[in-house]
Design brief:
heterodimer, A: 13 helices, 0% strand, B: mainly alpha, MetI-like fold, cell membrane (chain B), membrane (chain B), ABC transporter permease (chain B), MetI-like_sf (chain B), transmembrane helix (chain B)
Chain lengths: 350, 299
């Protein structure tokens, strides 16, 4: 498997480390190329005739031929893919038909809002999910465990976009506790200069606290929903990791030595559970980026999800595929990150 | 009557053993109340789909414009939608579409994954590496987005939606089957058939793939909940079943316009999706507890 086996002498640890990083980077690169290949295939091969999609059914033959050549469809497929890949590496994701801007510019404009919302969701998911999972494992097969498992199961089973609609109906329309769809109220829109793209950071940078609190009230419901969505996964995984840890002998030792229950559970078991949980959190962050697609359309949140959604209706494939590619890259990056964190945190994997 | 020959003896023993195993399985299943709830929900879904014409009170496609958006009542149990169609009847008929999508996805994705995984595990080497790399690429991509892009390219529709979900659903099966194949590949019985001259095809199809079945079934039950949610999401975005089909996700999408004034139009189909996917999740949980060999050892 590794290059090390071609060497006759034993490999020094430093060199093995370099080989490890190298083969790991290669894996990531292959995954990214595969991702690009998939979007390439979806964009160029799946529609029966990509030219017809652009020029329409009634275009004269001369227009058809010109577009055919412009798209480079006369070249062999591998060459087309190679050019596509080269364009992607230059940051050229094509032009969006609906906004007539480069797709990458659009994506970078919309991405911070998605990142803001899903990060808040993740924080909520961790803050509530981890303690719930710990409690569930501690009172294994008792009523708190059953209750928390049911809460998690509901989170797994409920269509999140529907929950968003019902939430809007109850908490915005009926109770008036939160603000409705959108990032801020209409008359606040575009007031704050666009610096980071995150409305909370931008408004506090500008010192516009009224807008800040307005944004908070708009954000509460979608962030809570995304938090619930990730809580279901995080609490379930925390539970199973903690169940494993609590059954270990060091827990018994700690108890025999007179450690308090809090110290045993949080200081010993949770500390050991933290390493696998890092992976869980990274994975659920990826899930949130995806879950935000549906949530954003419900809450008219100006993020990637909404961008993809509106591009779908403009039949703007460049934008749809660009968005897919971006979120896919974020996925791969998160997987990579969780790998690195796991390796650095767990002394056994060194 | 003839004296039972030895082979018939073995056969009846086998049958008795299978029956006993099934009985013990059923007994352990009955001890899990949540699993029973899940089973009841799934059976109810099947009954709804099979007996839709009997259960429905109205024609699910017939618009009665004078009754549009009417509230739940004795006439319209769950109210009427924006064209005056009975929501209850549409939910009942919608169960057929849900089952259709789930069925299409399962019968395509599980065999594809199974074959890819079993072949990769059985042959090893380069075939294994290439197949598993492809599987990893698919696993690394957000499922809903991939399905979305795929349907956007193919054009909306129920079959295309099912195809798109299949495209994202097969990799876990390939992983499962490969892991199982790696274990079985060098076992004595497979070596024995190999020595007896069985072809690779025969080994993969008749001797390796059956060994993967129990983990595949557990995985399938879990997957169904996810498939239902993804299909509903695609329907909600407008890429799944097209009007006037009573697909639940699409029904939420039309009800979205009336959420503040006629809340039932969007709420009721959502409850249906929730209940059904909860049912599959509960059933999947129970099945895993029963069939997963790792868990069984621990208990």
């Amino acid at each position: 498997m590794s290059i090390g086996k071609f060497l006759t002498r034993p490999v020094p640890p430093a060199l093995r480390f370099v080989f490890g990083i190298g083969s790991w980077l290669l894996t990531v690169a292959i995954t990214l190329v595969g991702l690009a290949a998939l979007t390439f295939l979806i964009g160029r091969v799946v529609p029966i005739d990509p030219v017809l999609r652009i020029v329409g059914e009634k275009a004269p033959q001369s227009v058809y031929d010109r577009v055919f050549l412009e798209l480079g469809l006369n070249k062999p497929l591998y060459q087309q893919f190679w050019e596509y890949l080269a364009a992607l590496l230059r940051g050229d994701f094509g032009t969006s038909f609906s906004t007539t801007r480069p797709v990458l510019t659009d994506l970078l404009d919309f991405f911070p809002a998605t990142l803001e919302l899903s990060s808040l969701g993740l924080v909520l998911g961790i803050v509530f999910g981890v303690p719930m999972g710990v409690a569930s494992a501690y009172w294994h097969e008792k009523w708190p465990d059953h209750l928390i498992r049911v809460i998690g199961l509901i989170g797994y089973s409920v269509p999140i976009f529907w929950l968003g609609l019902v939430g809007l109906f109850v908490f915005y329309f009926k109770l008036g506790w939160v603000s409705g769809p959108g990032q801020v109220d209409v008359f606040f829109q575009g007031v704050v200069p666009h610096v980071t793209g995150s409305i909370l950071i931008d408004s506090s940078l500008a010192g516009e606290w009224e807008i800040f609190w307005n944004a908070v009230s708009h954000m509460t419901l979608p962030a809570l929903l995304l938090g619930y969505y990730s809580l279901a996964y995080i609490s379930r995984m925390t539970r199973s990791v903690m169940l494993d840890q609590l059954s270990r002998e060091y827990v018994l030792t700690a108890r025999l030595k007179g450690a308090s229950e809090l110290q045993v559970v949080v200081g010993h078991a949770l500390r050991n559970a933290a390493i696998p949980l890092v992976t869980v959190v990274a994975l659920s962050y990826g899930g949130l980026l995806e879950g935000s697609v549906l949530i954003e359309t419900i809450f008219s949140w100006p993020g990637i999800g909404n961008y993809i959604y509106s591009s779908l209706f403009a039949a703007d494939m460049n934008a749809v595929l660009g968005g897919t590619l971006l979120v896919g890259c974020a996925f791969v990056f998160l997987n990579m990150l969780s790998d690195v964190l796991y390796r650095t945190l767990d002394p056994r994997s060194r | 009557m003839t004296l039972p020959t030895q082979s018939e003896d073995i056969r009846s023993d086998l049958r008795a053993a299978r029956l006993a195993e099934f009985k013990s399985f059923a007994r352990r299943f009955m001890r899990n109340p949540l699993g029973i709830v899940g089973l009841v929900i799934v059976i109810a879904l099947l009954v709804c789909a099979a007996a839709a014409p009997l259960l429905a009170t109205h024609d699910p496609y017939l618009p009665i414009l004078s009754d549009r958006l009417s509230a739940p009542s004795a006439e319209y149990w769950f109210g009427a939608d924006e064209l005056g169609r009975d929501i209850y009847s549409r939910i009942i008929y919608g169960s057929r579409l849900t089952l259709l999508i789930v069925g299409l996805v399962i019968v395509t994705s599980a065999p594809v994954g199974l074959v890819i995984g079993a072949v990769a595990g059985n042959y090893g080497g380069w075939i294994d590496r290439i197949f598993m790399r492809i599987t990893d690429v698919f696993l690394a991509i957000p499922k809903l987005l991939l399905a979305l892009a795929f349907v956007a390219a193919l054009g909306p529709g129920i079959v295309n939606a099912a195809l798109a979900i299949t495209l994202t659903a097969w990799p876990p099966y390939a992983r499962l089957a490969r892991a199982e194949a790696l274990v079985v590949r060098n076992s004595d019985y497979v070596n024995a058939i190999r020595l007896a001259g069985a072809s690779q095809f025969r080994i993969v199809v008749f001797h390796i793939m059956p060994m993967c079945m129990s983990s595949v079934i557990v995985r399938m039950t879990f997957d169904m909940a996810g498939i239902i949610l993804t299909a509903a999401g695609l329907g909600f975005i407008g890429l799944g079943a097209q009007p006037p089909l009573p697909e639940w996700g699409a029904m939420i999408s039309t009800g979205r316009k009336f959420i503040f004034d006629q809340w039932w139009v969007a709420t009721v189909p959502g409850i249906a999706i929730f209940v059904v996917s909860l049912g599959f999740n509960l059933l999947g949980d129970a099945m895993r507890d029963l069939l997963d060999p790792h868990l069984r050892q621990r208990n």
